[in-house]
Amino acid sequence: MKRFCGSEFWNASLTLYTDSPDLTPCFQNTVLVWIPCIFLWAAFPFYHFYLKQNNKGYIVMSILNKVKTFFGVLLWLICWLDLFYELGQSRVQHPVKVVTPLILGITMLLATVLIQYERLRGVQSSGLLFIFWLLALLCAIVPFRSRIREAADKGVTDQLRFTTFYIYFGLLLFQLILSCFNEKPPLFSSIVTDPNPCPEYTAGFLSTMTFWWFTSMAIKGYRNPLEDKDLWSLNKKDTSEIVVPTLLKKWETEKAKVQRKNQAVYSTSSTKVLNHVDGGTEEAGVLLLGKNDTKQPSFLKALLKAYGSYFLIGSAYKLMQDLIGFVNPQLLNLLINFTMQKDAPSWWGFALAFLMFFCALLQTIILHQHFQYCFVTGMRLRTAIIGAIYRKSLVITNSAKRSSTVGEIVNLMSVDAQRFMDLTTFLNMLWSAPLQIILALYFLWQYLGPSVLAGFAVMVLLIPLNAAIAMKTRAFQVEQMQYKDARIKLMSEILNGIKVLKLYAWENSFKEKVLQIRENELKVLRKSAYLGAVSIFAWTSAPFLVALTTFAVYVTVNDKNVLDAKKAFVSLSLFNILRFPLNMLPQVISSIVQASVSLKRIQCFLSHDELDPDSVDKKNIASGCVVTVVNGKFSWAKSDPATLHSINLMVPHGSLLAVVGHVGCGKSSLVSALLGEMEKLEGEISIKGSVAYVSQQAWIQNATLRDNILFGKPYNAEKYSSILEACALLTDLEVLPGGDQTEIGEKGINLSGGQKQRVSIARALYSEADVYLLDDPLSAVDAHVAKHIFDKVIGPEGLLKDKTRILVTHSITFLPQVDNIVVLVDGSVSEMGSYQELLTQNGAFAEFLRNYTLEDIVEEDEAIELEEEEEDFREDTLSNHIDMVDNEPVANEARKQFIRQISVISVDLENPKKMSTRKRKCSERKAAEHPPDKKSSAQKLIYAETAETGRVKLQVFWEYVKAVGPILCLFICFLYCCQNAAAIGANVWLSEWTSDTAVNGTQTETSMRVGVYAALGLTQGVLVMISSFTLALGGIGAARTLHSALLENKFCTPQAFFDTTPLGRIINRFSKDIYVIDEVIPPTILMFLSTFFGSIATITVIIASTPLFAVVIVPLAIAYFFVQRFYVATSRQLKRLESVSRSPIYSHFSETITGTSVIRAYGRQNAFVLISDKKVDENQKSYYPGIVSNRWLGIRIEFIGNCIVLFAALFAVIERNKLTPGMVGLSVSYALQVTMSLNWMVRMTSDLESNIVAVERVKEYSETETEAPWIVPDKRPPEDWPTQGKVEFNDYSVRYREGLDLVLKNLTLQVKGGEKIGIVGRTGAGKSSMTLCLFRILEAAAGEITIDGVKISEIGLHDLRSKLTIIPQDPVLFSGTLRMNLDPFEKYADEDIWKVLELSHLNRFVSSQPAGINHECSEGGENLSVGQRQLVCLARALLRKTRILVLDEATAAIDLETDDLIQSTIRTQFEDCTVFTIAHRLNTILDYTRVLVLDKGQIAEFDTPTNLIAKKGIFYGMAKDAGLA
């Protein structure tokens, strides 16, 4: 080296052992200059490759760019000026003077070229050059100082060199500053056009590394709660448009590869089987056997190929971070060494302190880059998997669809895709954890030798303990989920049938059932709390136990082993590094296992068979015929027997073909076959032109009514209104709150069956297809509406008269008007021809007619009888009620009454479950006398639930503290203080121990030292266990009190509340919010308290050892507070936005799955894929800032943590003369741990604020107003009341809710005991209200009701309701035994129950069941027919047998036969009771004592039926309409 430089290369006394250090000129001219050059040249090839791959378009030359390039050229010239100056000398003294400027000059040239090359490739800010300029500048600082000192000592020797160096230094500084600024975005990039681009795309290198670009959102979120419009667009690379095709391409290649391999193996057997499907089961067997050995395409490979390379960048960062992590313990070692050497120059200490700081800083930046890459990979995986599953679900065959339910497929999307997303974060731990463990053990071995193995053994032994705890916890979780599901199911039933519970006064019995389940649930929670406490004990004590065993073994093995500060605290910091990988490994492995299960499920779904798009031939077509089927043989799955066989059809253009046959003969299958939905085993199908399809079960999207009809076609007002008219939808639009802009709920929940079907027909009409396949569209609508639609749409005079129509129907009335009829019997065509031809043949068709005619005639009569009297309102609303009112605008009044009726009684005979949701969308009109504007937003019956924004009030925390118990809370905090005191005690003791002076090379009193250390450490562990357990118990106590208050209140809430609140919202309180209170809040508080007290402890220790530290604590705390507030406000809102935008993905998906056949028939697959992609992107748009916010926070908080490390080390150096090495070790090793707990503390604050809202929501619903008390002790009526059953209304008025019109106005009437009263009137006249008043479901607005002289408003509700009986219109049953449904309080004996079953004609059915009266009813009584359910309600009434019976007569739910049974039973069994009947069929009340006719809430007529008919008033008119007068 001396020959090369002309002086020595390294001189320790010049550099290290002096108070003013310097480096030798040789070192300065070689190493310091070469480091940046080597870096740039080493990185260049990789960077060049990267730029070739990623071209973002070129950037126009800007002033910034010109200046950079100019400075680059200048630098190059200056370097070469030195070179030529040296060469110009007569002889070169030392090679270094030529070599160094040469290398430097070439490097500067490369840097200048890179500036331009990057511009052409669209790089806005260069990380590589930034690092290069920074390195060059840092390396130039040493010569900068040396030259000034030299000049000061000896004067300037070499003027030119001196000048060029300082120019060089200045230029480097300029270049560094310039490289912090950004170029403009490339020409034509999407950023220019995007209204709200993500600033990350244009962020500079520094900004990207520190996530500075996110700050604008953090500030915005702090000022005002974030909204959708504040979110940035998703980066192009993360959108579905880019991400999904990438994966699909790789997956297709995987599939193709596997297919090629499999084909080679099975080509012979499969060809045979395909050629003759029915020929020989052996070959099929061979094929099936073969199927099992075939290779499945690997979805994992596809994922790796698509996203592996991006993920690897993250892994590279992780590797760097792991290695840097081990530098700080080594620096700590040097620092403790330094404090032991009293004569060492103090700049060593400062250098070490700053080195520790920079190391920690670098580690922070690298770690968060690693996380960013992992999370983005996870996000892309989720997008891609959801996209792939969605696309697949549109093309899978029906047999494949049957193998997995809608719920399961939605789970693939929500749960399984989520698991992949979660796994990517930890996946690197698989190799990183072992690496960290090996490195840590290696370094520990250096300090403590083989005793390390003792500590490591303890760690390894703790792993199975943790695993066992995890297994057990999972088992408890499963058990608890079962209880939770049972509780929610019961609650949802209770809320669905709350009205019935109130009418029967059954609340208590059901409340007990819920509480019983809840107790079991809390028991399991308590068990898992015990486990949790043990596991936290293991997790907290692990590092301590390890340290304890290691140190104890170390000092006892050999007397000569001295435990000094260096060994103890460096080992402790290494043990802390070990703690993370050891705890993570079991978690990572379990999540890998979960993800592999998910992988299999997704792979299986994506490998399902797809429908053959060419099974229906759209090209080749016989002349004249639009639809032809030749020798068709079809099945639902390849393995199933054929559903349809030998089908031959030819449908000429413009004809109407009817398909008839008995139930299950294959009519719908035929339509599906024409759509290509079935497996074609033999034959040919061809269809000419486009197809429109109306399915039997109408499929409705969650969109506006208009969008449902347009279905993606452009809007044409004229065509649209003519279609609405033809489909009889105009009257419905009158009623819907927003007209055709009304949002239709999921599955068309706020439309009746008939309305859904008509919307479905309108959609088909609007699509203007060539061929119409109508699968029994008229079954769901009333007879007269069916006739209207047939005439206006389908029939020979309808809108479709020129189109080809295939109509599946049961209604024989329309058959004479069709062109041809196909009769199907058992899956094949038995006859075909026109109506007349088939009648004359007297075959299957004639028999079919004979079977159906009777029924039809009965139906028609009923329809006519009902039509004028009271239309079943769900159906074809208001089509006949034009005569309802005389003076007011007809439609408006009708609408008012309709809404009034629906919001109270809400009859839905198809499905009791729909009650609540129907009301949800219905609007409330506050006595509007004029039709309000259709689109006004003020017509909400249900007000939207407000999303919480802004900070959570302290009041809410106080509510929770009160629920836990304030004294218990203080006790928990006290325990946390104690445990931290014990931990500090143990470490302080350790530092004392390490400062024991060694006598003759051994420490005395080691056993006492070990003993006390062990005692303190174990005390800490036990305290942790006790505190976590106490906290869990407090949490469970709070959960119990909050839930029971909520339950108590909901059972005492008046009916009006349930009418105006969607059930989903109440259920949500019982499920989601209670879950959060049970299982989310306690662990969050636990983490918060432990990190909070941990951070306090750290700071206490540092201040105690170096009091100077107190000076910096205030500014750091202020910075911390600000970062924390900014983060919490922003991240809380981002979480809310993310969860709001997540559910639409899944609901749209489940909607799509149920409607795939419709979507395919109309050819709308691509549009739906786009909608789904858009929803996923919307969701990721709020998810992405959410991940970045965590990175942003992490870097800032860890920076504060690193400052703590820096100051702790600095002050230790400053005060080193007062401190023992043990105290220095203690203080700095505590500081090294603090970053983690600071970071988690903010996260937990945020989580706590997000989740504590649940307490507020539960509290809100526990404090709604309640109805009158159930029992008024001093007003209880006598036991046998009412003895006569005499009912009086005195000037009685009532309204549904505050602010609405009166429904009954000043009723006054007397009913003697034992009278039978019929109540009739038009819809909305107040008939039902009158009966609800008797039960005080509605409370009087004025006047009163007395029963046998007792004012009902004065007694308790249960006393009143248990003495009256009602048979409601829609029978509600609860899941449980039949016995429980009749007698929930178990008051009656079994004989009584059998007796009433006999009277209600149910005994045959019940005795035929194996369980008898303990026969299980399913939810809502689904496993009984509607008629049977109605009879169960009758049995309930017979069992109670009270003096007063109210009968709300069932309209359409029941067949005539059951109805007659009920009427006759009532006549005989309730002979001496007072009976009120709301009559829909007048013939049932013609023999009653009196009939009450209500009109607009007032008594219009009240007399005996004969007198009323003679009077020729309203009643006469109704009787005449019904053909009774």
How would you characterize the overall build of this protein?
- The protein is of the alpha/beta class.
- It has 51 helices and 21 strands.
- The strands form 5 sheets. Strands 5-6-7-3-8-9 form a 6-stranded mixed beta sheet, with helices on both faces. Strands 15-18-19-12-20-21 form a 6-stranded mixed beta sheet. A 4-stranded antiparallel beta sheet has the order 11-10-13-14, covered by helices on one side.
- Strand 13 (1340-1347) and strand 14 form a beta hairpin.
Q: Keywords, please?
A:
6-stranded mixed beta sheet, 21 strands, 1525 residues, alpha/beta, single chain, globular
Structural class: alpha/beta
Spatial strand arrangement across the major sheet: 5-6-7-3-8-9
Strand content: 5-15%
Number of strands: 21
Point out poorly predicted stretches.
Answer: 270-291, 854-941
Shape: globular
Q: Give a short account of the largest sheet.
A: 6 strands, mixed
What's the number of helices? Answer: 51
Q: What is the residue-mean pLDDT, rounded to a whole number?
A: 83
Distance linking N and C termini? 127 Å
Helix content: 55-70%
What radius of gyration results from the CA coordinates? 41 Å
What's this entry about, in short?
The chain contains 51 helices and 21 strands. With 1525 residues, the protein is an alpha/beta fold.
Explain the layout of strands and helices:
Blueprint lengths: L1 H4 L6 H4 L9 H5 L1 H23 L9 H26 L7 H25 L6 H28 L4 H20 L11 H4 L11 H6 L4 H9 L16 H36 L5 H13 L5 H27 L1 H14 L5 H48 L4 H6 L2 H22 L1 H20 L3 H45 L1 H7 L2 H51 L7 H42 L18 E11 L8 E9 L3 E5 L6 H9 L3 E9 L3 E4 L10 H6 L6 H10 L3 H6 L17 H14 L4 E5 L7 H12 L9 E5 L11 E6 L2 E6 L1 H7 L2 H26 L20 H15 L10 H7 L32 H11 L1 H29 L11 H46 L3 H6 L2 H43 L4 H45 L1 H6 L3 H50 L6 H42 L24 E9 L6 E10 L4 E5 L6 H8 L5 E8 L2 E2 L5 H5 L2 E4 L8 E2 H5 L7 H10 L3 H6 L7 E2 L8 H15 L3 E5 L7 H14 L4 E5 L11 E6 L2 E6 L1 H7 L2 H8 L4
Parallel strand pairs: 3-7, 3-8, 5-6, 6-7, 12-19, 12-20, 15-18, 18-19
Antiparallel strand pairs: 1-2, 1-4, 8-9, 10-11, 10-13, 13-14, 16-17, 20-21
Helix pairs in contact: 4-6, 4-7, 5-6, 5-8, 7-8, 11-39, 12-13, 12-14, 12-16, 14-16, 15-16, 15-23, 15-42, 16-18, 16-41, 18-23, 18-39, 19-23, 20-22, 20-38, 22-23, 22-36, 23-35, 23-42, 34-36, 34-42, 35-36, 35-38, 35-42, 36-38, 36-42, 38-42, 39-41, 39-42, 41-42, 46-48, 50-51
